[in-house]
Each structure stands twice: as C-alpha cells, then as structure tokens.
Amino acid sequence: MTGQYTKSPRRMRGFERASGLLQSRIRKAGESRGFAVARLLTHWAEIVGEDTARVARPVKVGYGRKGFGATLTILTTGAQAPMLEMQKEKIRERVNACYGYAAIERVQLTQTAPTGFAEGQATFEPAPQPAAMPDPATKRAARDAVAPVRDDGLRQALEALGENVLSKPKSN
C-alpha cells in the first residue's frame, strides 16, 4: 500500500442525521408525484386568499441541492411586487399549512415572464369595481317604499337594499 486512504463518500465519523440520509429520496419522490405543484395550481386562491391570488400566480416550485424545503416562485406585476414582498412569509406559512409540513422553505418573486407551469402569463383579474351611486329618483322610490317601517335601523337597511335592487340594470 502506498499509504493512501480512500474513504467512502457516504460514510461519516460518528452519527449522521437521518434527514441527511433520506433527503434525496424524499425530494425525488415529491418531484415525481408532483403533488405540491398540482395543489398550488388548483387551489391557489383558497391557499393564499382572493386578494393575493388576484395579483400573483405561482410559476414554479424548485428544489435546491441541499435541504428539504423548496422555493416557490411567484409571478406578479411590477406595481404589486413591493406589497407581495412584505407578504412573502405569510404566503409561505399558508402554503405550508396547506401541506401540513414545511414543503416551501422560501418564496421568491419574479416580475418577468419565466417559463414554468403558468407559462409566464402576467395578466391578472381586475379588482371588483364599487357600485355606482343610485340616482335621486331611485333613492326616493326606495325611501317611499319603506316609509311605513317604524324601526329606524330596519328602515335604513331596507332602504339601502331597495336602492341596490332598483339601481341594478334590468336583464332580459
């Protein structure tokens, strides 16, 4: 022998963490089944909430070389990026709560059109528009209809309801 000692790359001195032994196998199993990606796509609005879903979409779930956690990349517009940047931890917590474990370690925002399962579509649903104010004639008709009601709170609620109903456009 020449005095060289070759050591097996897997063998360590002392104890080795079980997570280190199983890490690559668990990652491969998760990637092959695609469970994380499918659930994020199909239930995105339920997971992160309607407001966040309106301005952001999941683009990709990437697995790093080390560690269990994955990186979730979210596509958004430039105007919404600062607000989402402040909500990254909340988004990560909600996604992980959906899975029941820390599937996502990091959330990353992108404002470009990367390739991924969202095909880089940066168009989002607009926020709902507030209802237009009813005209004075509609207000008067609603007030006259509920005039006999003696309870003030009930009369005001019915008057507001009447204004909403009467101001809706008539459909055929």
Question: In a few lines, what is going on in this structure?
Answer:
46% of the residues lie in helices and 13% in strands. The chain has 172 residues and is an alpha+beta fold.
What does this structure look like?
- The structure is a single chain.
- The chain is 46% helix and 13% strand.
- With 172 residues, it is an alpha+beta fold.
- The chain has two domains: 93 residues, GMP Synthetase, Chain A, domain 3; 32 residues, no CATH class.
- A three-stranded mixed β-sheet has the order 1-2-3.
- Helix 7 packs across helix 8.
- The longest helix has 16 residues.
- The chain starts with 17 loop residues before the first helix and ends in a 5-residue tail after the last helix.
- About 3% of the residues have low confidence.
Descriptors:
172 residues, 2 domains, alpha+beta, GMP Synthetase, Chain A, domain 3, three-stranded mixed sheet, 46% helix, 8 helices
> Taking Cα atoms only, what radius of gyration do you get, to the nearest Å?
28 Å
How does the overall form come out from the CA principal axes? elongated
Question: Could you tell me the mean pLDDT?
Answer: 75
Class computed from helices, strands and strand pairing = alpha+beta
CATH class of the largest domain: Alpha Beta
Number of strands: 3
Q: Helicity range of the residues?
A: 40-55%
Query: What's the main sheet like?
Result: 3 strands, mixed
Widest sheet: strand ordering? 1-2-3
Any guess at the CATH architecture of the largest domain? 2-Layer Sandwich
State the end-to-end distance.
Answer: 95 Å
Which parts are unreliable, with pLDDT below 50 for 5 consecutive residues or more? 114-118
